[in-house]
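Sequence only, no structure available. Ideas?
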Amino acid sequence: MQERLALHPVSAPFRGRSRWSTGGRPLPWLLTVAGVFTAAQLILVVPGSGLGWDETVYVSQVGGNAPPAYFSAPRARGISYLVAPVASLTASTTAIRVYLALLSGGGLFACLWIWRRLVPVAVLGCAGAVFSLLWITLFYGPQAMPNLWCALGALAAAGWFLRAVARPGERRAVIGVGSAVAVVVLMRPSDGLWLALPLAASALLIPGWRRPAVFAAVAIGFLVGAVPWVVEAYAHYGGLGARLHRASEIQGGLGWHMAVDDQVRALDGRSLCRPCDVPWKHPVAAAWWFALPVLAAAGVAAAFRADRGSRAPWGPRLHRGPAALLATCTAASLAVPYLFLIDYAAPRFLLPAYALLALPVAECLVFLAAFLVTGVRPALRPVGAGVLALALTGHLAVQYGVLRHMLDVNRSLRAHYSATAAGLHRLGVRPPCMVSGQDAVPIAYYAGCTSRQPGGHDASITPGGIEDAARHMPVAVVVAGGNAPPPYARTWRATALPHVRGRETYRVHLPPTLLP
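Reply:
I predicted one. C-alpha cells follow.
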C-alpha cells in the first residue's frame, strides 16, 4: 500500500523524457484548452455584462466608479489586488472583464502546465476542458470574484505538492506549493485553510510523501497569505477573534448545516441561494453534479489501474493513481464547509472542488474512450461512441442553457442599476453623494456615490450619521415596492425611480436639502 501511494523521488519521466510519461506534447493541447476557455468568455460572457453586488465592493476598494464600499468581516482583499492594475486606471466594466478573461485563461494554462509531468496530456487536456466548460467556470472567469482564483490556486497547489514530494530536490516545487496556498488564503482565508489541511497532513503522515520542507512550505504559505486579513482584523474589527466572530454571524453562524440540497437547487441558475427554500424546478441542470462523485471514484480506480501497466523501460512506473487520489481528497476537503457548515449555497463556492475533481473525472473519460477503441468489439464501437458523444453533447447543452440564463439575469441587473443611478442623477444625487437602503451597494457604485447602511451585514453608520451627512451632501434612501422608509426618512420626499421590466419598482426618499 505504501508503494502505491508513494511517488518515487527520482524517476526518468521527471528528467527530460516527459513525452513518454505524458503521451504527447503538452503545449499545443493546453494552449488550445486555455484559448477556447478565454474565447468563450470574451464571446459569450463579457459583452453587455455588468458588475454584481459583491463585485462592486471589491472593485470600489481600488478605484472603479465610486468610493470604497463598506468591507464586511468575512471578505478578503485578494481579488481587489488582482483587479487593481485595471480598476485604478478606468471605471470601464468591459475593460475589467476583458482583463480578467485573459488573465483567467492564462491562469488555467499555467495551472495545467504544472501537472504536465504528473498525468498524460490526454488526461490533462480533458481535465481542463471538463472544468473550463462548466457554466460556473465560464460565468465567473471574467468576474471580479475570488472563487475561480481559489480554484486555480488549489489546482496549482496540488500539482506543485505532488512534484515536491516526488523530487525533493525540485526547490521551485516547494516554493510553488507555498505560493499557491498563499494566493488562495489571500483570496478566501477559509478556502486556504481547507486546502492546507489535506496537503499538510499528507506531507506529515503518508509514507513516501513525508517531506518536512513541503509541510513547512504549506504552513508558511498559509501564514503569509493570512497576514493582510489578520492585520486588518486588528486595525478595523477589534482583533482577530472579533473579526472571526462577526464573520461567522454574517454567514449565518458556522456549524453543522446540511447544505447539499441547497447546492443542488442553486444549480438551477442562481448566483446565491439564501435562504435556499426555493423549489427545485430543473433537475436536469444538476444531473452532472450527481454523476461527478461516481465519475471521480471511477477515475481514481482507472488511474491506479493505469499505473499497474505503465512501467517505463528506463525507470519506475508512473503514479497517476496517487495524484488522482490526492486531487479527490483535497477537493472533498474544500467542499466540506459549503456542503455541511453553512446554511445557504452559491454554485461558485464549489469551484475549487470542481477544479480538482476534473482530474479524476478526466481519467475516467479517457479510460472510457480508450476502452471503446480497444476493449469493445468493432461492431459495437460506433454505438458506444455515439452514447458517449450524446452524453457529452447533452451536458454541454445544459451548461450553455444555464449560462445563458445567468447572463440574462446579469444584464437585467445591469440595466436596473444603471437606470436607477440615472434616475438619482436627475434628482440631484450626484457625486459626492451617499446612498442607503435597498441594494444600496450596487446602486451607489453605479451612481458614483458612497454606500452606507445603519443596520444589517454592512452596518457602518448610525441613522443620525445619515441625517448629518444629508446636511452637506446629496443623500438618497432607496426603498423597494410598498415598503416603508426608515423612521429618519419618513418626512423626506418620496419619488419613484425608473422601472426596468422584470425588476421590482424602487422609490427614493430625499431629504429637504434636495427639494427644488
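The first strand starts at residue 434 and ends at 437.
Hope that gets you unstuck.
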